[in-house]
Hints:
alpha+beta; five-stranded mixed sheet; 4 helices; 10 strands
Amino acid sequence: MTLNTKPGRSLQSVLQSTTLLLVASVGLWAQSDGASGQPAPGAKPDKHNGAADTPAPEKGRSDDSYVIGADDVLSINVWKEPDVTRSVTVRSDGKISLPLVGELQAGSQTPRQLEEEITRRLQSYISEPEVTVIVSESKSQRINILGMVARPGTYMLTSSATILDGIAMAGGFKDFAKKKSIYVLRAEPDGAQKRIAFNYNEVIKGVRPEQNIKLMARDTVVVP
Length: 224
């Protein structure tokens, strides 16, 4: 590098000025880099930095009211235990199987209750297991609306849906629907099928309103 010295200034004073400028530039660069939160090149990440740590999963993400049933698909996560974490389908008998846990009853329980049962069983193998159960696919809480309705098919069941609600979900009646002869097919615990009559014309007139029962999972509403 060639230094251009002016008359009256010594080479030493020029070198001193150049050094001061370099020091000031380095200081400004360090301040701006620190403000951005980025580590300097070659620096090791701070182990106390929250972004570098993986937090434990939050509890309470599962549903306290949903009742698990057959064919539901459950996402079961055990924190830091990939061999136990998996997706399982509830069998027709309401049971599931997991490594270390074995076979257990999932049907008729809420996700939170199932979390507690899995946690209890894992405590013999894992110190302080963190378990989360989420219903990833709800296939048990569904009803079928068939026959002379605008949109026959399968629908998700809400907790308070009645026969009238089911008909409304399916878009109402088609022409020539036999509104006095509607019925619900319901599976009994012993495997038998129960037929429940429903007269739409009576119910909307306020006659025998008790016919408008709440629907249950796997009910089939038939509109002839």
